[in-house]
Amino acid sequence: MRKTLLALAAGLLLAGSVSAASAADKLKVGFIYLGPVGDLGWTYQHELARQALVKELGDKIETTFLENVPEGPDAERSIEQLVRAGNKLIFTTSFGYMDPTLKVAKKYPNVHFEHATGYKRNPNMSTYSAKWYQGRYIQGLIAAKMSKSGVLGYIGSFPIPEVVSGINATILAAQTINPNIKVKIIWANTWFDPGKEADAAKALIDQGADVIMQHTDSPAAMQIASERGKLAFGQDSEMIKFGPKTQLTSILDTWGPYYIARVKAELDGTWKSEDTWGGLDSHMFAMAPYTNMPDDVKKMAEDAQAAITAGKLHPFKCPVVGQDGKPVECKGGDHLDDGQILGMNFYVKGIDDKIPGK
Amino acid sequence: MELLEAIILAVLAASTPLLIAATGELVTERSGVLNLGVEGMMIVGAACGFAGAWLTGSILIGALFGIVAGTLMSLIFALMALGLAVNQVATGLALTILGVGLSGLIGAGFVGERITPAAHLYIPGLTDIPLIGRVLFGEDAFVYSSLTLIVGVWWFLYRTRPGLILRACGDSHVSAHALGYPVLRIRTFAVMFGGACAGLAGAYLPLAYTPFFIPGMTAGRGWIALALVVFSSWRPGRLVVGAYLFGAVTILQLHAQGWGVGIPSQFMSALPYLATVIVLVLLSRARTGGSTAPAALGTVFVPDR
């Protein structure tokens, strides 16, 4: 029995190496996904980007993806699995894959890694992320214009800097329209739980909010807002299907151009470890069409988008005043610098709440 | 006043899937079988329920699809754990993993579609009564079914002879067998009832709660249902209290955040679970002699023929 098993294993190994050899002329590119490809949010957008990549460079590359990979030790095994299958460029698409990716990267110096939204790098490991706070700023402008009650509802996932900076950008923008705007913040303490996101949206609306924004992944909040005749913003992907008369716009993750550029670099042999934090100007994300708003609001949103894209408007332009009424140190000249935004752990003046755990 | 009504409505909606799934599991466990696959059966129920409703346009048919799907899933469990006497814990966990994968497969074609959620009852006059009108006379059919179900289960377990026999199987399958009762057949029916309830509870999510299907949308509710059964110390009355208490804490913590109560939200999110632990501790202290769990719970039974 033992011998049979060994023979079988040897046979499999042989088969494996043969298939690897036959595909050697094509670059193998691997992807690790957090959720199912059909989550309609975060993972779905990465999958769309992969499909765009295949469409563009399909004759030169071969892609593989593993979905539903939990963050943590399991991720390490999955990443290594992709390495052993011969992938030379591997995208790990969630923050929690940071340490596992780094560990595998150090073990296989000849394989290149791309980690989304993290901050640890290696000579063979790049990071990439998007300046979503720019999109949040535009949403804040729209929200303040569209709100009749003057109360915005914000569903947060976890109180991490990315989410906090999004809340601040929103409220800073809203204050330029209505200085007395209020925001109610509810933390779901999860990225994905449609039921809980729906409950949070209900609670916000019941407490008087009439524009709902979210930093969680499912279209549940959009759907509740639509049921109650309120307005809302989508997240990660196009959610207008869930609120045809509700969605104002949505921040769309568009990783496609980045993936194509990085794979091209790999094919040309010019790939090197980089830290990419792109905004509207570099098409790391896009805004869904501005809908369900009057033309003047739409024009204002489009103007703001153009100004941000051109670098003329910075959401965190100084002075940024903290909750204590004192301006925050201005490290980036006339606006906060990237480090301050990436590590943001304070609320700006006008938010009548505390960051949980602070 | 309106806010209070809104909160009660939200609590009822949040508690209903937990109550339905836990009711089924309570019957399963009372017969002596521990089926940890509730989450798996629920999520398949959600996928099939949505598929049924989307294809036919009928919420009722969707719910039936969910019930049938949950029952079929539970039959896999029954075949393994009862027929082949495989370890129940392992089989249940495997069922959950299978269910999560299977539901993704079944639901793949329906992601991004939406349906009209289950209609709410409306009786002119009664439903318009302030505060209690919509709570008592304005719910959807699932809420009323869940309450009917738990009352029915209570009546069955404590007021009927088959219920007594079912409990006997859970407390001592050897004695029940010696008395000539078909232990495995009774347990199979109990497991199927558990599966049907889990399927219905799963179907409630895309048919009434958030009317769309997304893989993984049960988000751990099956596990909470399992905890509720322990919380209730296997009694239907306490199960109702537990389910609504859990729903109430979940909803109230969201509102407390909106009001800006200065308690960290991480703590608030943990509150329902903390409440479960505290009640468990209190129960174990108050217990007078013997365990409240069915004595044969989780043990394999192979009849000697």
UniProtKB/TrEMBL annotation, chain B:
The keyword Membrane applies. PANTHER family: ABC TRANSPORTER PERMEASE PROTEIN (PTHR43370:SF2), SUGAR ABC TRANSPORTER INTEGRAL MEMBRANE PROTEIN-RELATED (PTHR43370). The keyword Transmembrane applies. The chain crosses the membrane at residues 6-27, 34-55, 61-86, 93-112, 141-158, 189-207, 213-232, 239-256, 262-283. It is found in: Cell membrane. It is a multi-pass membrane protein. Keywords: Cell membrane, Membrane, Transmembrane, Transmembrane helix. This is ABC transporter permease. It comes from the Bacteria. One of its GO terms (cellular component) is plasma membrane. Pfam families: BPD_transp_2. CDD domains: TM_PBP1_transp_TpRbsC_like. GO terms for molecular function: transmembrane transporter activity. It comes from Bradyrhizobium hipponense.
